[in-house]
Amino acid sequence: LWGYNGQSPGPTIEAVEGDKVRIFVTNRLPENTAVHWHGQLVPNGMDGVGGLTQPHIPPGKTFVYEFILQKSGTFMYHPHSDEMVQMAMGMMGFFVVHPRDPAFRRVDRDFVFLLNAFDIEAGSYVPKVNTMTDFNLWCWNSRVFPGIDPLVVRQGDRVRVRFGNLTMTNHPIHMHGYDFKVSCTDGGWVPEAAAWPEVSVDCAVGQMRAFDFVADRPGDWAIHCHKSHHTMNAMGHSVRT
Q1: Of the N and C termini of the chain, which has fewer Cβ atoms inside 10 Å?
Q2: What pLDDT does residue 234 have?
Q3: What gap in Å lies between CA 12 and CA 142, rounded to an integer?
Q4: Would you state the pLDDT for residue 4?
Q5: Which CATH superfamily is domain 4-98 in?
Q6: Would you state the pLDDT for residue 131?
Q7: How far apart, in whole angstroms, are the C-alpha atoms of residue 47 and residue 54?
């Protein structure tokens, strides 16, 4: 894999609504790259589309992104330069912008994960970068169950689970043992009076979602994509209360 800062997904960037952020991107890949701040409202020159809003970042060079965070919510970052190859190699990450008011929609535990997929032959470590849909590893944070840490919460905690989909298909995410309320979408926070109850929430390609629940049912509860071939390959997780 490639990734950011030597990992896939890249580090989760956390900041506060209204902050000015400055991000240095040094390209150590064997090809050009650029970074798009998916869902963020940024100046055109900071949007990270190589060849359109900025020159591509050549190997060995650094580009500095700087912008003010216009709204809180759940966002992602990924290349917009040779996207299919670079994302197939694991280049993606999360960007969480917290509300300026720390009491707004406050939770005790806040989890994030990216849905991604790879096509890797047995015995190999290098993904096939030309695969369009026939992936054999459906992952959460570039890992498959059971090689994923559980989401550990205490009884009575108010919990938020945020996720984004950078695969090539949609994923209906289902959690056992609970119903929950969808609290945030790509466009922003859902007003509390309008947050709708679910036990599964679909996440289309390029979308982000967040849901909240109160951990009042002890046990080890499964949370997984409800497409059976994804669950078997092995897009699953667990919530330990």
Answers
A1: N
A2: 54
A3: 14
A4: 97
A5: Cupredoxins -  blue copper proteins (2.60.40.420)
A6: 80
A7: 8
Query: What pLDDT is attached to residue 119?
Result: 87
Write the burial class of residue 214 (CB in 10 Å: 0-12 exposed, 13-18 middle, 19+ buried): middle
Average pLDDT of each block of 10 consecutive residues along the chain (241 residues)?
94 98 98 97 98 98 98 96 92 96 96 91 84 82 84 96 92 94 92 94 94 96 81 58 57
Residue-wise burial string across 178-202, b where 16 or more C-beta atoms lie within 10 A, e elsewhere: bebbbbbbbeebbeeeebeebeebe
Q: What does the chain come to in residues? A: 241
Predicted local distance difference test score (pLDDT) of residue 233:
58
Domains 4-98 and 109-230 share a fold: yes
- DSSP per position, the chain: ---BTTBSSPPPEEEETT-EEEEEEE--SSS-B-EEEET----GGGS--BTTTB--B-TT-EEEEEEE--S-EEEEEEESSSHHHHHHTT--EEEEEE-SSTTTT--SEEEEEEEEEE---TT--S--TT-SS--SEEEETTB-TTSS--EE--TT-EEEEEEEE-SSS-EEEEETT--EEEEEETTEEPPTTTPPEESEEEE-TT-EEEEEEE--S-SEEEEEESSHHHHTTT-EEEEE-
What are the domain boundaries of the chain?
A: 4-98, 109-230
pLDDT value of position 129: 84
Q: Which residues pair with 22 in a beta bridge?
A: 66
